[in-house]
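Q: Given only this backbone (238 positions), what sequence would you predict?
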């Protein structure tokens, strides 16, 4: 692993270097930001970790100016923050952030199911995310399970067939991944939701969008409550 900043261990950037191939045709700040956003969504950069300008620009083979613009874009999305004389860090969410994330999720994800229209629905992405999560759980890969869960909710919102909704949810769910890091036992947190993901997917496959929406609303409230309690415990322990 790479160096330590503020007591946190930085990730090995060899995997990130492989992403430089994605920039072969477009070395824009937007594309760099998309790569870093995806890595945050996957849990690669945990909350509080410092992002080394030198290391990341070298790994992605982009200029520092391009990387700085990407950092600026991600700061606007509330994923990064610049600390004066210290550098750029992945944000550590506050309880208010968590509450607002779930407010948006409830509005967007439930509305996506509520407005589906007549079945059958195109559930390819939904089914793929559920299966990936189940396979990750069987392998004991709980970070992978967490990523699959994010992809599942992206796929639910994607049923709205709205590019603007997709963009909104990419940003919201990347922030959500930062909240997941507060859970001390990721298996205990994620494992029950594997079954619930499958149940929602099955309801949609049966054409019962209204039933799937009701299940999702309870699901989101349970998830919000668990994370809020974990945040409260962390604050009490300080």
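A: Predicted residues:
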């Amino acid at each position: 692993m790479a160096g330590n900043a503020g007591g946190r261990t930085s990730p090995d950037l060899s995997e990130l270097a492989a992403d430089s191939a994605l920039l072969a045709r477009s070395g824009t700040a937007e594309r760099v930001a998309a790569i870093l956003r995806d890595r945050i969504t996957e849990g690669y950069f945990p909350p509080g970790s410092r992002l080394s300008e030198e290391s990341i620009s070298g790994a992605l083979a982009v200029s520092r100016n391009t990387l700085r613009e990407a950092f600026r874009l991600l700061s606007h999305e509330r994923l990064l923050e610049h600390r004066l004389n210290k550098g750029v860090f992945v944000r550590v969410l506050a309880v208010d952030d968590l509450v607002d994330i779930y407010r948006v999720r409830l509005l967007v994800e439930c509305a996506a199911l509520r407005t589906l229209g007549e079945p059958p629905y195109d559930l390819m992405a939904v089914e793929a995310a559920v299966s990936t999560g189940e396979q990750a759980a069987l392998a004991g890969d709980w970070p992978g399970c967490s990523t699959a869960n994010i992809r599942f909710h992206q796929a639910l919102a994607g049923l709205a067939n709205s590019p603007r909704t997709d963009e909104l949810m990419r940003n919201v769910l990347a922030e959500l991944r930062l909240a997941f890091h507060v859970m001390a036992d990721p298996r205990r947190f994620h494992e029950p939701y594997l079954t619930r993901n499958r149940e929602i997917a099955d309801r949609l496959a049966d054409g019962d969008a209204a039933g799937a929406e009701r299940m999702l609303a309870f699901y989101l409230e349970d998830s919000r409550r668990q994370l809020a309690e974990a945040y409260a415990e962390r604050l009490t322990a300080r």
